[in-house]
Amino acid sequence: MTKNEQFEKLELKTSINLISPPRYPQSFPLHWHQYAEIIALPGDAQPTQAPVIQINQVRYCLEPGDIVFAWAGELHEIVSNKDHLLLALQFPGSLISGLPEFTPYLNSFRIFHRISAAEMPKLSQRMILHMQQMLEIKNSQRPFAGVEVIMSLYHFFMDFGSAVEERRGISCASVPGCSPQLLDKMNQACDYITENCEQPLTLEDMARQFGFSIFYFSRIFKAATSYNFTEYVTLQRVKRAQSNLAQSNLNITEIAFQSGFKSISSFNRAFRQYKGCSPSEYRKYHSTD
């Protein structure tokens, strides 16, 4: 395997690339790129064989109305798309991360790799409709079509964010005294963890910093993120290491310690848990030197 073998360099003519079902490949080997990719099987599709997409070594068999997300830098593969029914869009994450209104939801978005039509039918229907509208606008070639497509993408993520907020509200309702203001504090805590994950962060220190008891901070944090504190810190350290593995020449041991892990064994174990491969395998896939 050559160093560049897994990297797909997308040359997008516009900031958003939409791929219609007839053009989406029947299969495509394991690869990654610097753009996010969203793949959907429309609700009215009638596949003779369920399409299969692999993301981070997890295989997703799509049912009509399902949506899967391969975020930037994540290894993914089109295992099977026999009937050519999948619709996809690819876009740079900066289109979303650059807007302050989306910032509190970015970590929550990336938790999702699948939206199931069986579990969230209204959301999946709306999101696929946005994708279909984007494709229709793009094909119209009318003036300002590119702007309209970006606006539709924002509506896509507004619906996504609203669903995340609703789920948070349901989780929050189970915690006495929880409020939108407390959830905002948890967003601030998440941002702090992401920016400082290489530091020896502890639940006790974070609770004190944000003005909560340890027990209450732990409950609110879980309600807001779906992770306990330790899991979330570990995930952010894995993401920090993932970036360094792909973009730096540091050796794996240095990356482990610079990402906040105390031992190479704990780093290897956590990385495989969250990414589905070892750090050395990930570097091999992502090296573009």
Structural domain tally: 2
Which CATH class of the largest domain?
Mainly Beta
Structural class: alpha+beta
E-strand count = 9
The major pleated sheet works out as: 5 strands, antiparallel
Helicity, in percent?
40-55%
Strand content: 5-15%
Low-confidence stretches: none
Alpha plus pi helix count: 11
Rg, alpha carbons: 20 Å
Oligomer: single chain
Shape: globular
Measured distance between first and last alpha carbons: 14 Å
Give the helices and strands as they follow along the chain.
Answer: EEEEEEEEHHEHHHHHHHHH
What is the structure about, briefly put?
The chain has helices at 94-97, 106-111, 121-140, 145-173, 180-196, 203-209, 214-225, 229-247, 252-258, 264-275, 279-286; strands at residues 17-19, 28-31, 36-40, 52-55, 58-61, 67-70, 76-80, 87-91, 114-115. The chain is of the alpha+beta class.
